[in-house]
From TrEMBL:
Gene Ontology biological process terms from the UniProt entry: negative regulation of transcription elongation by RNA polymerase II
PANTHER family associated with the record: NEGATIVE ELONGATION FACTOR B, NEGATIVE ELONGATION FACTOR COMPLEX MEMBER B
Chain residue ranges for the region called Disordered: 84-113
Alphabetical UniProt keywords: Elongation factor, Protein biosynthesis
Entry GO CC: NELF complex
Highest taxon, organism lineage: Eukaryota
Translocase recorded as keyword: no
InterPro entries: COBRA1
Gene Ontology molecular function, alphabetical: translation elongation factor activity
Designated name of the protein: Negative elongation factor B
Species the sequence originates in: Bactrocera dorsalis
């Protein structure tokens, strides 16, 4: 039910309510951790970077978690890493200082007439 609401995850108050006040309470249970990992799989790119880092640290599996949770966590880390690296790299545009338009006068503001 939460995945279609992906846009809401960019709002800090929504994240605070969902993660801090609801999901963090049950993180000691494997099923809550698994569900949170699966949720982050779909919405990680909508979360603020600071919130995502906090969540990844909070859900980092311990020796008490089963192997499935460890694998899900590693897979999510890889997905987040590839998403960050696949993002568009802004190219610097070269400024052409030899533009023929430099000699064209700039029109004055219309409100001063």
């Amino acid at each position: 039910l939460l995945i279609p609401m992906a846009e809401e995850f960019s709002a800090e108050d929504f994240c605070t309510t969902l993660f801090d006040e609801f999901l963090f309470v049950g993180l000691t249970r494997d099923n809550v951790t698994r569900h949170m990992l699966k949720l982050l799989w779909y919405v990680h790119n909508k979360l603020p970077a600071g919130r995502l880092a906090t969540l990844m640290k909070a859900i980092q599996p311990t020796t008490g978690h089963n192997e499935t949770v460890h694998k899900l966590y590693e897979t999510l880390q890889e997905r987040i890493g590839t998403t960050i690296h696949e993002g568009p790299i802004p190219e610097q545009q070269e400024v052409d200082f030899d533009s023929p338009l430099k000699s064209v006068p700039t029109p004055g503001p219309a409100y001063m007439q």
